[in-house]
Amino acid sequence: MSAVSGASDDQDVVQVRGLRFARGTRWIFDGVDLDIRRGKVTGIMGPSGTGKTTLLRLIGGQLKPHAGSIRVDGAEVPRLRHKELYRLRKRMGMLFQSGALLTDLTVFENVAFPLREHTDLPESMIRDLVLMKLQAVGLRGARGLMPNELSGGMARRVALARAIALDPMMIMYDEPFAGQDPISMGALVQLIRLLNDALGLTSVIVSHDVQEVAAIADHIYLLSEGKVVEQGTPDELNRSPSPWVAQFMHGLPDGPVPFHYTATAYRDDLLAGA
Amino acid sequence: MQGLQRLGRIGLGVFERLGRGNLFLLRILAGIPAVLARPRLIGAQMYSVGVLSLVIILVSGLFVGMVLGLQGYNTLVDFGAAESLGVVVALSLVRELGPVVSALLFAGRAGSALSAEIGLMKATEQLSGMEMMAVDPIKRVIAPRFVAGLLSLPLLAAIFSAVGVLGGHFVGVGLLGVDDGAYWSQMQAKVDLREDILNGVIKSIVFGIVATWIALFEGYDAVPTSEGVSRATTRTVVHTALAVLGLDFVLTALMFGDV
User: Fold this and answer.
1) What is the pLDDT of residue A2?
2) In 3D, which of B71, B68, B235, B97 has the Cα closest to residue B156?
3) A111/B216 Cα distance (integer angstroms)
4) Which of A87, A158, B3, B75 has a Cα-to-Cα distance from B201 of 20 to 30 A?
5) Which residues 245-264 of A have a C-beta within 8 angstroms of B?
6) Burial of B52 by CB count in 10 Å (0-12 exposed, 13-18 middle, 19+ buried)?
7) Which residues of A touch B27 (CB under 8 A)?
8) Does the structure show a pLDDT above 70 at A44?
């Protein structure tokens, strides 16, 4: 039986149950459950190194979990065959942290790339579609530029235009706000929400930029040490009594997550060199 | 005991990489039919892999032919056989130096560039990005480069040999006074189409497969950091040189020797 035919809760585009994944001897995920609601913007947050990007790669089928279930639109992703996985990916967009634009193609050709690869549309229609997608991210005028002529923020917006080229049902954003100036950040924050609502998408944002994600997300999952430690709306998380959540949401330098990396006593360390 | 363990680990690592390399080649071969339906992709790669290697092939071929002409003449003239210079130059080039030196130059010029390009595409997540766009990077990026390398090297080797013959002619006939007619007629009489030229072409096809496969695999398997890409390009040149020279002995023994 094809793994694609499985049923799922229609409200959830992604359902993750009992996910376990290890790198070497370290468990990155040790029993993670989460749901991504259709039509909503869901934030997945946590300190650096908690495996947020790995989670996106697991959902996209680029990595296979050691245990657990990952269902995307009813399809059990780890069990999909190559062709089925690629068919599913045509309905998923992913925005990489670097943009991942093809460096030998212009902005126009980058956005046209998935259309040329997956459709037989005439050139005039491809042109119109590309210009519409570029207009949506405000970069229609930059269509002739090469990727090395773009700023970091512009590159991500081009990548976003490329990600929506095939009108996917879901877009996954990997650290979309990292290293952005305030203007680019503001533009991206607005754009993600706007595109989600205007195109009827489902958005998953992996990030540790608390304010930006809290501003646009409908639901947030907080990950730490391989588990979901808290979830809820941004307001619920801001009011959470958990000291760990408070430390993360308010960016406090010290708390349950210590400022200092585990070490021997400071005094002993200094005296050891005497 | 620890030394033995280390040796075992290294051995396992080598065989694991060999296995990955072979699976990689199988995936490329499976992707070739799809690529043949898109000749434009192959054409673009033949330009960067083949046409852009022309200058180094032309210049090297000319000098190698000139050196052969000089060395060959100095030896043959002692035996009163200077008229056989054309045969010596042509056979040396067509059987050995054309395929081998072209493959070594190809590894240095095109192979290293292929490894660096693929390695950097991996490091900048372009290959991952393609996978997530449901575009198979093996079919879209790797297979066209493989076909281009496979077709380019025999052509480059043929050009190398042809230019080398002209270089030998320039030195032998033009500078050292060997008879022009003897240079060409002896070559025509003694160089066999099947025995010499076809075997040389077979060699360069084998070297083309091996050199392009190694270059693409090293790039695809590179650690996605600047140091990783740098190591991959170095390994491409070293491994290709060793593989080409080793295979050359095997092929020569099979084709011309009674080993």
Assistant:
1) 38
2) B97
3) 26
4) B75
5) none
6) middle
7) none
8) yes
Compute the distance between CA of residue A194 and CA of residue A215 in angstroms, rounded to an integer.
Answer: 13
Lowest mean pLDDT among A125-134, A240-249, B155-164: A240-249
Element (H, E) at B21: helix B2-36
Q: Provide the shortest C-alpha distance from residue B193 to chain A (in Å).
A: 42
Q: How far apart are CA A130 and CA A105, in angstroms?
A: 14
Q: How many CA atoms lie within 13 A of A105 on its CB side?
A: 19
3-class DSSP state of A69: strand
Phi and psi at residue A219, in whole multiples of 5°? -150, 145
Q: Which two tokens mark A153?
A: 């923020």
Cβ of A269: how many Cβ atoms within 10 Å? 10
- Per residue in B40-96, pLDDT (tens digit) is 999 999 999 999 999 999 999 999 999 999 999 999 999 988 889 999 999 999 999
Tell me the shortest Cα–Cα distance from A74 to chain B, in angstroms: 18
Q: What is the dihedral of CA A56, A60, A63, A69, to 10 degrees?
A: 90
Q: How is the beta sheet containing A170-174 ordered, strand by strand?
A: A92-95, A170-174, A202-207, A41-45, A219-224, A227-232
Q: In Å, what is the CA distance from B217 to each residue of A216, B19, B119?
A: 43, 12, 9
The letter for the amino acid at A151 is: S
Question: B2's torsion region: left (phi>0), alpha (psi -120 to 50) or beta?
Answer: alpha
Yes or no, beta carbons of A62 and B131 under 8 Å apart = yes
Distance from CA of A17 to the nearest CA of B (A): 22
Spatial separation of the C-alpha atoms in residues B138 and B50, rounded to whole Å: 20
Cα–Cα dist B106/B99, whole Å = 10
The per-residue pLDDT for A177 is 84
Interface of B with A in 111-150 (CB under 8 A): 124-126, 128-129, 131-136, 140
Residue A268: band (very low, low, confident or very high) from pLDDT cuts 50, 70, 90: confident
- What's residue B3's pLDDT? 87
| Among the listed residues A213, A258, A256, A255, the one whose alpha carbon sits nearest the alpha carbon of residue A238 | A213
The ipTM, to two decimals, is 0.81
Q: Which of residues 181-220 of A touch B (CB under 8 A)?
A: none
When computed from its CA atoms, the radius of gyration of chain B, rounded to whole angstroms, is 21
Instruction: Single out the residue of A173, A42, A11, A195 nearest to residue B132, CA to CA.
Output: A173
Tens-place pLDDT, residues B128-161 = 999 999 999 999 999 999 999 999 999 999 999 9
Record: contact B135-A114, CB cut-off 8 A: yes
